[in-house]
């Protein structure tokens, strides 16, 4: 074991920083050797001095300089952990929390009981944990339980340059927690780490910290990277262009790993497959075999077989107890093929590329070791990118922007950057979200290029022209300024922060958006109910990923949708049926696999249900009520109550079928009118209510592809609306239309204030209240 003090001296050539306490770490010699090469080791002394002397410190350093893996180790060695206090590190991405905790445990030769991670519903934290990696959402939840975060001695906010919403909220909250802990005589250190020098929102914001925190810059040993712009910018086929570029690099340029940046999982797989075909590896190429089952080709074959509409043997759910009875199902299928592209950010199954594939064969004898990398890839497959490629091969990693700053892949000399990123766009006023592939920012393109110069001079091939690059936005705006603020307000209220408008956000969201959201939440009754913390979010992962089991799931949906009044609950009944059926089948991976459900999501739902039933049962036990966690299918009456509850919670998401005057225009055929949009909105083809077209529905979200589609749809009865949502109803003369406005983000014309427009657009049937 090499004592840390020696490390410090060797690395920096400065006199040793003698920590007051020194906890030795027994590192393996090869780990120690690799550490010594990291630029951050040269700054250990100045970092520790700054932390010892200041409550808040900002550390900026190029990706790969060692911030995430080394700073927790510096703190550990300097005695910043004990049985009463731990070091907490937050990451905006789950993959980073898991992978970094593994890496640090390995470097320090410590058990995972001591260096642990916690992401939502999953983790290995124990009583012995001293270094804890977690997602930013997890720390926010902990603040709700213990505002002073008393079990931590240090909190590190990592990847602060990403400006995720939770990171920004955490920094705002910690700016208040740090002085409170100081007053109590139990100081808490806050360290903000960023891959860029753009930290003035944290350091120069007078509302955040009373004293300007010191900024320590880690000089990266970055080698020069030659940037090659394309003369022309390919308009659509950037994936094909990536393929051609990788082929050229591999055939013509000296050894060195290649890293390709694409925008989503399907593109990544498609390119991996093409490259493996072009530069075949020997038969036992484990990299190739590994994700075969996920390949685009497989999915395409599956879809084709589905189109043939062969009769399939499917289990049927007995709704009395959700038991599964195998039966022969007919071939009726709904047309949900039309818009696979509406799925979530990393999850799309875009098959365009696979269709247009050329059978390009290489004359090169050197095999290419091709690995995919994206957030939802299983951790053991992700870990492969850190290992050296098999001898006699060249490494080629095809990644989404997770390889931009979260994970550093060793040995990369060539970067191929398509210049694009898949982003969720959200119109704050209308609530319409859409996923779009757009140009990335200059800052992120430069981060991508930087990946090529870590160990020797490198090259970055940008598949767009320099003129296009000059038009990129400089940095992407903080998430908090771009997304809906309703759940932000509810989170803050759950933390007992009454005046959200006065909260010290590093970059505050627009005051009018906060005010409008607050008004909406009051109209929905969400802010009066002390127990309410927001409508349950269906995560992108849950809604978007069904992979190759989609056809079967579509058939199962009809079974889960139930009969009679249950059907009116629509897509929510389908979800309830799926969860119930899974529960009764013992929630096994096999059941999920066979029925197109995602096993991990089912486990998460199960755990969440467990938490909720326990909480509700503890509140209701005095009244003699008990909820059986083994959920029974709802009765028709219960399903009706559920629809009313959903309506009360999604009051601003009510839609009415187009009526006579709208139907004069063909574009309104089968369309719905929502409160906030002038345009026709349709029930998504994947919805169980797609063909039924009830008069009034509530939806969970609107996604935009070729049209505006509602997802997560349930039917509601019009006479419930004035009872459950009085602020949205008006029985008198219609008000004048508010002037429309233009949303620059989505290019959509929208109407103003929801409540006004409801009053205008709906003359609801008069009912006795
Ligand atoms: P930063 O946080 O500054 O971007 P990191 O601490 O993540 O830097 O990475 C420092 C070094 O550790 C990099 O060279 C990276 O390749 C290496 N590294 C990180 N995780 C692993 C891992 N799981 N296996 C091998 N090397 C790793
Ligand atoms: Mg990092």
Automatic annotation (TrEMBL):
| Molecular function terms, GO-annotated | helicase activity
Q: Where is the composition biased (Acidic residues)?
A: 328-361
Comp. bias intervals (Polar residues): 1-14
Top-level taxon in the UniProt lineage? Eukaryota
| Residues covered by region (Disordered) | 326-363
Keyword field: ATP-binding, Helicase, Hydrolase, Nucleotide-binding
Domain Helicase ATP-binding: start-end pairs:
48-215
Q: Which residues form the Helicase C-terminal domain?
A: 245-496
- State what protein this is by name: Activating signal cointegrator 1 complex subunit 3
Q: Which organism is it from?
A: Apteryx mantelli
Q: Which gene encodes it?
A: DHX37
Q: What portion of the full-length protein is represented by this chain? A: 208 to 976 of 1080
């Amino acid at each position: 074991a090499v004592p840390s003090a020696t490390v410090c001296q060797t690395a920096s050539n400065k006199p040793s920083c003698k920590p007051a306490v020194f906890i030795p770490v027994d590192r393996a010699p090869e780990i120690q050797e690799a550490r010594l090469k990291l630029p951050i080791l040269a700054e250990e002394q100045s970092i520790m001095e700054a932390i010892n002397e200041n409550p808040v410190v900002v550390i900026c350093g190029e990706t790969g300089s060692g911030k995430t893996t080394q700073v927790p180790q510096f703190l550990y060695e300097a005695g910043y952990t004990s049985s009463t206090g731990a070091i907490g590190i937050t990451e905006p991405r789950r993959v980073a929390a898991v992978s970094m905790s593994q890496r640090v445990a390995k470097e320090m030769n410590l058990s995972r009981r001591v260096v642990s991670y916690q992401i939502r519903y999953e983790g290995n934290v124990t009583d012995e944990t001293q270094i804890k990696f977690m997602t930013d959402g997890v720390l926010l939840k902990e603040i709700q339980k213990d505002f002073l975060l008393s079990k931590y001695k240090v909190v590190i906010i990592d990847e602060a340059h990403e400006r995720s919403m939770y990171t920004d909220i955490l920094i705002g909250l910690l700016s208040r927690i740090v002085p409170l802990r100081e007053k109590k005589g139990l100081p808490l250190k806050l360290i903000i780490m960023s891959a860029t020098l753009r930290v003035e929102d944290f350091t120069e914001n007078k509302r955040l910290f009373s004293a300007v925190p010191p900024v320590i810059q880690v000089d990266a040993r970055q080698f020069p990277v030659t940037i090659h712009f394309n003369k022309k910018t390919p308009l659509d086929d950037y994936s094909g262009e990536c393929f051609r570029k990788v082929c050229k690099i591999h055939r013509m340029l000296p050894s060195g790993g290649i890293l390709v940046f694409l925008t989503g999982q399907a593109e990544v797989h498609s390119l991996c497959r093409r490259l493996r075909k072009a530069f075949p590896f020997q038969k036992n190429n484990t990299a190739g075999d590994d994700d075969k089952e996920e390949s685009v080709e497989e999915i395409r074959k599956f879809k084709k077989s589905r189109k043939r509409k062969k009769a399939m043997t499917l289990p049927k759910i007995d709704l009395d107890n959700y038991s599964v009875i195998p039966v022969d199902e007919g071939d009726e299928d709904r047309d949900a093929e039309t818009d696979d592209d509406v799925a979530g950010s990393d999850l799309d199954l875009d098959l365009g590329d696979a269709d247009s594939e050329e059978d390009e064969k290489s004359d090169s004898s050197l095999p290419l070791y091709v690995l995919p990398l994206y957030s939802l890839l299983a951790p053991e497959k992700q870990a492969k990118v850190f290992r050296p490629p098999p001898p006699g091969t060249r490494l080629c990693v095809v990644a989404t922007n997770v390889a931009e700053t979260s994970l550093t892949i060793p040995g990369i000399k060539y970067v191929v950057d398509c210049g694009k990123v898949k982003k969720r766009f959200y119109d704050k006023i209308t609530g319409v979200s859409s996923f779009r592939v757009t140009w990335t920012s200059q800052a992120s393109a430069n981060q991508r290029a930087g990946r090529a110069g870590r160990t020797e001079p490198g090259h970055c091939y940008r598949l767009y022209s320099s003129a296009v690059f000059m038009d990129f936005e400089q940095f992407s705006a903080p998430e908090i300024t771009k997304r809906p603020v309703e759940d932000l307000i509810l989170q803050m209220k759950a933390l007992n922060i009454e005046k959200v408008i006065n909260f010290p956000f590093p970059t505050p969201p627009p005051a009018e958006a906060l005010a409008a959201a607050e008004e909406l939440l009051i109209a929905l009754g969400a802010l009066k109910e002390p127990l309410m913390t927001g409508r349950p979010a269906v995560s992108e992962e849950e809604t978007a990923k069904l992979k190759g089991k989609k056809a079967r799931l579509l058939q199962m949906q009809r079974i889960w949708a139930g009969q009679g009044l249950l059907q009116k609950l629509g897509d929510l009944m389908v979800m309830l049926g799926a969860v119930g059926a899974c529960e009764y089948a013992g929630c096994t991976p096999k059941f999920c696999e066979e029925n197109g459900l995602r096993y991990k999501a089912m486990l998460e739902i199960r755990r969440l249900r467990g938490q909720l039933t326990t909480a509700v049962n503890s509140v209701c036990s005095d009244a003699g009520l008990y909820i059986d966690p083994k959920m029974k299918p709802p009765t028709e009456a219960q399903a009706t109550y559920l629809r009313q509850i959903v309506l009360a919670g999604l009051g601003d998401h009510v839609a009415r079928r187009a009526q006579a005057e709208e139907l004069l225009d063909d574009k309104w055929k089968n369309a719905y009118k929502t409160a906030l949009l002038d345009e026709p909105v349709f029930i998504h083809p994947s919805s169980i209510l797609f063909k039924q077209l009830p008069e009034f529905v509530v939806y969970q979200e609107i996604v935009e592809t070729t049209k505006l589609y509602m997802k997560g749809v349930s039917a509601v009865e019009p006479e419930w609306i004035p009872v459950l949502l009085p602020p949205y109803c008006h029985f008198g003369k219609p008000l004048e239309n508010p002037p429309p406005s233009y949303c620059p983000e989505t290019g959509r014309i929208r109407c103003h204030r929801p409540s006004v427009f409801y009053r205008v657009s709906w003359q609801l049937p008069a009912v006795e209240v």
